[in-house]
Amino acid sequence: IRRIGVYTSGGDAPGMNAAIRAVVRTALYHDLEVTGIFRGYEGMIEGDFKNLVSRSVSSILQKGGTMLKSARCPEFRTVEGRKKAYENIKAAGIDALVAIGGDGTFTGAQIFSNEYNIPVMCIPGTIDNDLAGTDYTLGFDTANNTVIESIDKIKDTAASHNRLFFVEVMGRDSGSIALYAGVAGGAEAIMLPEKDTAIDELIEMLEVAKERNKTSMIVIVAEGDKNGGAYNVAKRVKEKFDFYDTKVSILGHLQRGGSPSSFDRILATRMGYFAVNELLSGNSQGTVGIRGSKITSTSLEDALKGKEFKLDEELITISEVMNI
Ligand code: F6P
């Protein structure tokens, strides 16, 4: 390997910059060269490349977003699109890739690597924490901290006015943020896409909480909850349970930004370092992950097959016990 191409793709996540920095600096340490590929697969197809040196990644460790920009690219799903991408990669002398993103990014990397025999290592970067092969994805911890800060603030005003708040958090297909932020923020109920809680069941929980003399309450609703989001849940609850003044708060894209937490910076740095070293030792088509406290690698095949990321059942139980 002489030159590594690094890119970010799919939804951005805090910690992506720290991972880019770690990939660049580890590669330079091993006397490799690095090309930054802008806008993910879109930039690969258009040849939007830039040589990266150590100073190119100065002072990005603490920044949210991604300096390489990100995009979702339908053209890369086509044979013709990938052919264009390969021609650009070849012309730029790139002979290995590090991809940072979610499962769409990983799938693209796997297909491309198979087609053109180019080594690739992936780094899980998404606030959703919904990838197999790792306990935590980059950005999840930061997003949780952002959500908790918001819940704490909402709790102050909810308590002052004896209100019931429905707070919607991100997670189109995943309840990770909802569960973790719900536990850390002391929510009365958590609506998860994985759980499919019926409105009547939720009302029962709220009735119990009311019996326990709770004067205000927070319900966390994951974006992907089957009842159709916080506004719908609030409306349907109010039809049968109208004891509290009810408000809805959708946190939205603010959850995707912000300076990465210490945890995410360290995780990103370890993962970037590990990804380059894996390429150098001949590994390909793998995703880097953290298991317990150890950085590991899982084949993309296994990671993508085991796509049904499971939520921590015990944490769901704990969240219920905490509401006694
Ligand atoms: O980053 C993951 C995620 O936040 C999902 O939970 C959400 O549904 C989606 O991205 C929205 O992304 P975008 O607005 O970029 O399409």
TrEMBL record:
Allosterically activated by ADP and other diphosphonucleosides, and allosterically inhibited by phosphoenolpyruvate. It catalyses: beta-D-fructose 6-phosphate + ATP = beta-D-fructose 1,6-bisphosphate + ADP + H(+). The active site is at 128 (proton acceptor). Its EC number is 2.7.1.11. Mg(2+) binds at residue 103. Its main location: cytoplasm. InterPro entries: ATP_PFK, ATP_PFK_prok-type, PFKA_ATP_prok, Phosphofructokinase_CS, Phosphofructokinase_dom, PKF_sf. GO terms for biological process: canonical glycolysis; fructose 1,6-bisphosphate metabolic process; fructose 6-phosphate metabolic process. One of its GO terms (cellular component) is 6-phosphofructokinase complex. Residues 3-277 form the Phosphofructokinase domain. PANTHER family: ATP-DEPENDENT 6-PHOSPHOFRUCTOKINASE, PHOSPHOFRUCTOKINASE. Catalyzes the phosphorylation of D-fructose 6-phosphate to fructose 1,6-bisphosphate by ATP, the first committing step of glycolysis. Homotetramer. This is ATP-dependent 6-phosphofructokinase.
